[in-house]
């Protein structure tokens, strides 16, 4: 799966699963709140029933006229009776609670007025511990439901996401096939043009036409570089890299000669400070793509008569230009494929994407500093 497909799939899954989780969380909270209220009401009704039963016992004691009265007790509840002034008379509590206050958050309390007035008792308080077992079972059931639903919808979301990115994959594959076919068709005429130009220059068969030949050569080299870039993009994921120890100083000087014609046409002043002893372990084609794209951009986006500065030391390669620069709002996306900050200069917007891929493949660091209308400086640090 391509990086763009993975990014789209991950974004879809994040939005899909987040919205699903929030929806189910809201539904579960509403269900839990409603069920909890129902369970608590059920326990309160049981407590009210016990209070009615206690009143019937008090009535029987009142009517019995027994010489010795006893206070009835129950197994699962505590009770207490109070007089008309809400004063405590008797009860089964270890410490008598006040009638106006709740005993504990974990205890249900019910106060009922005794009518008619029995044995000096005007108020009856009944209390019992809340049975949390049904609530814990409810919480466990909801948690298991959320887990099972989460796994189910994650799997469902993954397959939906695959269907979602399928058209994108098909379009990318079609575009890759188109690039592959196009580059294949371009290769033969480009190679033929360059070979014949080199033969003409070697045997000097066309004296007086050097300027025209130079223009043809520049255009041909530009096409050749575009061909190489498109091939690199198309085959990068399957490309077998052969890392060797390269003399970066010699390679950069070689590429400066390659781009000399393009720089001269634009009237650029090329300044170079190249350490000839910088050795770097890298695939030669990757090194070419890295250097060529940085030099090409520095020439393409430079101003006529501007300066191109190339500095190579033991730790980094720095390429600076005095060109049109990059707008601040484009800096965050300038490394994205097909992103072009300035459309007036043409191009495909793949140069810096290729540079970024090479930098990531070898664990280098890429720094881009630019100011609009003042130029750009790119550093590759290893």
Annotated CATH topology of the largest domain: Heat Shock Protein 90
Principal-axis shape: rod-shaped
Task: Determine and state the CATH class of the largest domain.
Answer: Alpha Beta
Please report the number of helical segments: 7
Q: Write the H/E string, N to C.
A: HEEEEHHEHHEEHEEHEE
**How many extended strands?**
11
* Derived structural class: alpha+beta
Q: Please identify, by name, the CATH architecture of the largest domain.
A: 2-Layer Sandwich
Compute the number of structural domains: 2
- The overall pLDDT average reads 81
Superfamily (CATH H level) name of the largest domain = Histidine kinase-like ATPase, C-terminal domain
Q: Helical content, roughly?
A: 40-55%
pLDDT < 50 stretches: none
How much beta, percentage-wise?
15-25%
Rg over CA atoms = 42 Å
Q: Would you write up a description of this structure?
A:
- This protein is an alpha+beta fold and 382 residues long.
- The protein has 7 helices and 11 strands.
- It has 2 domains: 3-131, no CATH class; 241-381, 2-Layer Sandwich (Heat Shock Protein 90).
- The protein has helices at residues 3-64, 133-203, 210-235, 248-258, 260-265, 284-300, 351-361; strands spanning 78-82, 88-91, 107-118, 121-129, 243-247, 269-274, 279-283, 307-312, 316-321, 365-371, 375-381.
- The strands form 3 sheets. The chain has a 5-stranded mixed beta sheet with strand order 6-8-9-11-10, with helices on one face. Strands 2-1-4-3 form a 4-stranded antiparallel beta sheet, with helices on one face. Strands 5-7 form a two-stranded antiparallel sheet.
- A hairpin with a 5-residue loop joins strand 1 and strand 2 (88-91).
- The longest helix has 71 residues, at 133-203.
